[in-house]
Amino acid sequence: MTWLSVEADGPTALERVLRLRPDLRDLFTGYLGLLWSERLVDPVVLELCRLRIAQLHGDRTQALLRYDAAVAAGLTEAQAGAVASWFDAPLFTAHQKACIAYAEVFAMDVHALTDEMADAVKAGMDDAAFVAFTVALGMFDGLGRFRLVLGADEPVTAPATVPAPRPDGVLH
Amino acid sequence: MSTTPRAPSAVAGQPANLRTVLAHRPELNEAFGRLYGTMWSRGIVAPDLKETARMRNARITDCGF
């Protein structure tokens, strides 16, 4: 379902919406793509948090997609499948769990984030990576809501690997 | 919420704020500036409508800006 009466040409549902505003689409893709192409943050951590935020949004499509950059960096399907029960899952490191916890609260109630939660994330990354990580969470949260509101998602029924965002790439 | 800035300023002598914290990743800072600047300076949505939405979002999220 979409509230849009027209869509642009494009290879994915998200692109067909974003390309209605091609100047913003290119700048947005350039911004989001940097997070993945420059490896500003461990791609596995990024992907675990992206998947968890998709689950919190009730975004079944995005929760089934796996970005190739994360898979190449070591993300397993067992980990992706266990994100919803990360708290007591043995598949994640303490730092990965700290990052997922931070992502959860970021998306649900940003004022509930504590200094202790932030410190646990920063224990495994420098300030530059922490800044990039927090930017990424904002992108995942905002883009996820954008997709859901405008119906810009392909139907997916099983886990599928897709290219991670790149400055000159296609968004899924 | 944070009792102190959780990420320090990356600009010597300047306090932590959105610009100086993003400066830890200059490439992100520049890409964000291009996107955000274009969104505000051009487009087909009236500026007063964008600002109304921004202020309402800030109030709902209890953001001082």
Average pLDDT of chain A, to the nearest integer? 95
Mean pLDDT rating of chain B: 90
Structural Rg of chain B: 14 Å
Largest sheet of chain A: 2 strands, parallel
The span between the termini of chain A is 17 Å
Kindly provide the radius of gyration of chain A, computed on alpha-carbon positions and rounded to a whole number of angstroms: 16 Å
Parts with pLDDT < 50 across at least 5 consecutive residues of chain B: none
Described by strand count, sense and barrel closure, the largest sheet of chain B is: none
Strand order of the largest sheet of chain A: 1-2
Largest interface: A-B, 24 and 24 residues
Q: What is the ordering of alpha helices and beta strands of chain A?
A: HHHHEHHHHHE
Distance between the termini of chain B: 16 Å
Query: β content of chain B, as a range?
Result: under 5%
Low-confidence stretches of chain A: none
The DSSP helix count of chain A reads 9
Can you tell me the overall shape of chain B? flat
The total of helices of chain B stands at 3
Detail the topology: elements first, then pairings:
The complex is a heterodimer of chains A (172) and B (65).
Chain A lengths: L12 H6 L3 H16 L5 H15 L2 H5 E3 H5 L4 H5 L12 H15 L6 H8 L4 H24 L9 E3 L10
Chain B lengths: L17 H5 L3 H16 L5 H14 L5
Give a verbal description of the structure.
- The complex is a heterodimer of chains A (172) and B (65).
- Chain A has 172 residues and is mostly helical.
- Chain A is built from nine helices and two strands.
- Chain A has a two-stranded parallel ribbon.
- In chain A, α7 (94-108) crosses α8.
- The two termini of chain A are 17 Å apart.
- Chain B has 65 residues and is mostly helical.
- Chain B is built from three helices and no strands.
- The model of chain B has no long low-confidence stretch (mean pLDDT 90).
- The chains are: A mainly alpha (172), B mainly alpha (65).
- The interface between A and B is medium-sized, with 24 and 24 residues.
